[in-house]
């Protein structure tokens, strides 16, 4: 009689991320690794530690350097850029508390505004394009910076680890500038806007794209994104333009970064970032021509 006893398949977890199930092992050390830790090899995948130590193959250091899913170099501190962004936002917030409204007026995103009765007109339309960037780091209320920085700390490190520092930085800044540009393009000229929300929504979009690419369960991020979108369109005083602009830019750039064919990876990634930057500039030029004689 045939033995009816059946052995259940053993569940393995990534040795670097013990909470993640995986069915892939490093071809050199045979330890289980998750998609984030997979470094493509000539046959199969290697873990980052084996790639770092396996320099005896005669390859150049750049060829053997561990790479992220987007082709970036795996860094020792995968939260460095996120920490820097948190620090800059916190520093500007403290500066606003010390200096007061004068600093806020200098950094706010204005399309075009009269600073005082019959006084000079200033804003992005008058050439102060720096406001598109400075407004991304400007907060006045403690709840505002707390919510944005919580989102940055929650979404930033996984994306920084998956994309690499340079690509992650490009994603963050272009998402924020995309939100600022859409706000400038469609809002009333005198409507002020500030905060890192555009960049944070860019991280939301990028996270959804990355999770889809790695076949992760997308329900948590989609639910969280849906809740934030509800607040965007129902809470008075929120700039939906910044949120939607950042979300769209972040998702599009992330898609180009993680789906670019390996043979033309840098061309596709750098090209998509350059194209997005050109679109942002074009939107600002069009709005400036509308608002100035």
Care to describe what's here?
It is a single chain. The chain has helices at residues 48-53, 61-64, 80-99, 101-107, 130-134, 142-163, 165-186, 197-213, 219-234, 240-259, 265-291; strands at residues 12-13, 21-22, 24-25, 32-33, 39-40, 45-46, 113-114, 121-122. By secondary structure, the protein is mainly alpha-helical. The protein folds into two domains: 12-64, no CATH class; 80-291, Up-down Bundle (Rhomboid-like fold), CATH 1.20.1540.10. A two-stranded antiparallel sheet has the order 1-2. Strands 3-4 form a two-stranded antiparallel ribbon. The protein has a two-stranded antiparallel sheet with strand order 5-6. Helix 3 runs antiparallel to helix 6, helix 6 crosses helix 7 (165-186) and helix 7 (165-186) runs antiparallel to helix 10 (240-259). The relative contact order is 0.11. Residues 1-9 and 55-64 have low confidence and may be disordered. It is a multi-pass membrane protein. InterPro entries: Peptidase_S54_rhomboid_dom, Rhomboid-like_sf, Rhomboid_protease_S54.
Describe this structure in a few short sentences.
Its main location: membrane. With 293 residues, the protein is mainly alpha-helical. The protein has eleven helices and eight strands.
